[in-house]
Amino acid sequence: MSSRRRTRDSGGSGDPETGADDGLRAMRERSRAVAEREASRLARPDQPASSRTLGHAKKGARQSTPFGQMFGGRSPTKSDPAIEEEWCGPFSVARQMIAAREEARRLREEQQAEAEPNNNKESHPLDAATELALDKKRRLENPSMNWVSRHQRTDKESTNANYYAKRRRRFNRQKSLMGNGSNYVPSLFQLCVNYLVKNFECIDTLGLVDHSIRRALCERLVAQGKMNGAAFDVLAEMGVETLELVDCAQVTQDQFCDALRVLLPSGLRAILLKHCGRCFGSQAVKVISEIENDKLELFAISLAGAYLLKDQDVAKLIESTSRTLSSIDLTACPLIGAQFCQAIGENFSSSVDNGIGGCLLELSLQNVPLTKEALLTLGASSDALQNLKSLKLKEIESVDDEVVSIILNSVNGGSLEGIDLSDNPQLTDEVLSSIRQCNTNGSLRALQLSGLKNLTAIGLEAFFTPIDDLPSPPMLRKLDLSQCSYDEVDDAVVSLAAKAASFKRSSTYAASEDNPNPEHLVSEVSSAKKGLVHVNIIGSSVSDKAMETLAATCSSSLEELDISFCTNVSDKGLGYLVSKVGCQFAKIHVWGLAQITEEFLDGHDRVEEGGLEIVGVWMKKSGGRSIR
Predict the structure, then answer these.
(1) How far, in Å, CA of 80 to CA of 3, rounded?
(2) pLDDT digits over 293-316, tens only?
(3) How far is the C-alpha of 134 from the C-alpha of 126, rounded, in Å?
(4) From CA 451, how far away is CA 539, in angstroms rounded?
(5) What pTM does this model have?
(6) Per-residue burial over 152-183, b = 16 or more CB atoms within 10 Å of its CB, e = otherwise
């Protein structure tokens, strides 16, 4: 027994110090490895973790003293599933989340690869030649694929500058080319306007200056907060024919009425007011109605924000001015109603005063609370709208297909040149049929159908397609199909609209649909000035094919294009369009097009010469892959 104790004591006399050193050294090595691994992972979380894995320490090594390794413990093996799990903690959880996300992305990409039919086909020696032939065919059918940016043509590589530095440089270059750069010298007209506005309190009269000058002065006064009663007295002096104010908020009703008493007998012909709720009301209507008919020569009245103007007042206003009045524009006038519609039917009918009554040419109503019954009365009661040239019914809840059909049928001979039915949610494809049937003379040039969500692609294609027993499709100069349903306004709709606006005969392109290349349409354009001028297709599903059609049919007419939030348009489509369209093309809106890159913004054909304003260049494409 004593020998056994002596043997045990002698064998363990040097072991504690040696075991302590080994345990401390092992813990230091493990801590260093953990630090290196965690440092690399935290510095680059997007990179995969190091392949080096650390197993759990032995039971003794996990104790608070380095002597734990001296006491034996079970060595873990790789087959133990508990070892694969990491210790709980924020860093471990974050690593597990990253691994799960990467695994989900890998599985998603594998599913997409399996869904592609080409991946399941067996390879063939002629696959490369077939792919080359197909690519050649695609380039022949889509000429925009052949467009090359200026950087690639000149072998000029883009610098590695910061994105925002490039954007600032691009913005400064555009400002300098558009005449607004750091070396910009204002025109003599702008210098004079700025000087007059700066010293406007010293001006007693402007004299016989043109209406455009008075408008520029008014806009600058409003921008600088100097549009007050004294400035109004100078702008509204005796002898002016057009009283146009962009903001009447500082003009009182008494002051405005005093000005009317002086201006109307002296030849005032147009009243164009915005934000006129304070100055234009019952008292102003009374002043106008008291003027003798022989001295009253008003032909245009445009009022925006006249919240004091009552229904009976506007009816009295129309009755007093109907002899010469030809243009009525009311926006955000909340008190007008049925009496206004009845006044138009009674005072502009051909039976009034033995046919000597006024001739209404323009009717514009926006955001007014008219009922459906009042609108039906306006269209069916008389022939007051038979000579109408421009019709605008915008943001009116009661406007539906029946209302539009009756009003358009009351227009004689299809004399309408402009129609605006934007933001009326009840309109459907039936309204397209009514517009097409009323365009008997083919005089329609502007069509605005923004925000009509119920329009369909079939209805729009039929509207722009030649059909027997129907008037020809309209040869538009302005087309607005913005904010309609995304899938309904597509390449086919834009192509048909552009062809209808450009071709010599409405049926010319019916037989040319077999050729998918839009460049063959250039020879069919009727003349140098025919074609779409202003196109707005915000939020549509158009692609580069629509850009190719616009380039072929509107190369000499297109001036402004708005393709904001059209996610299918690429650099090549826009670059091809700019390269083919003439110098009259002045503005393009690209808000929300994150897919547009420097290839177009810094590489289109008019970067150096200027004249093309690109509005909305601020989006930056995300670095991650987007799957729709």
Answers:
(1) 42
(2) 888 899 999 999 999 999 999 999
(3) 12
(4) 10
(5) 0.74
(6) eeeeeeeeeeeeeebbeebeeebeebeeeeee
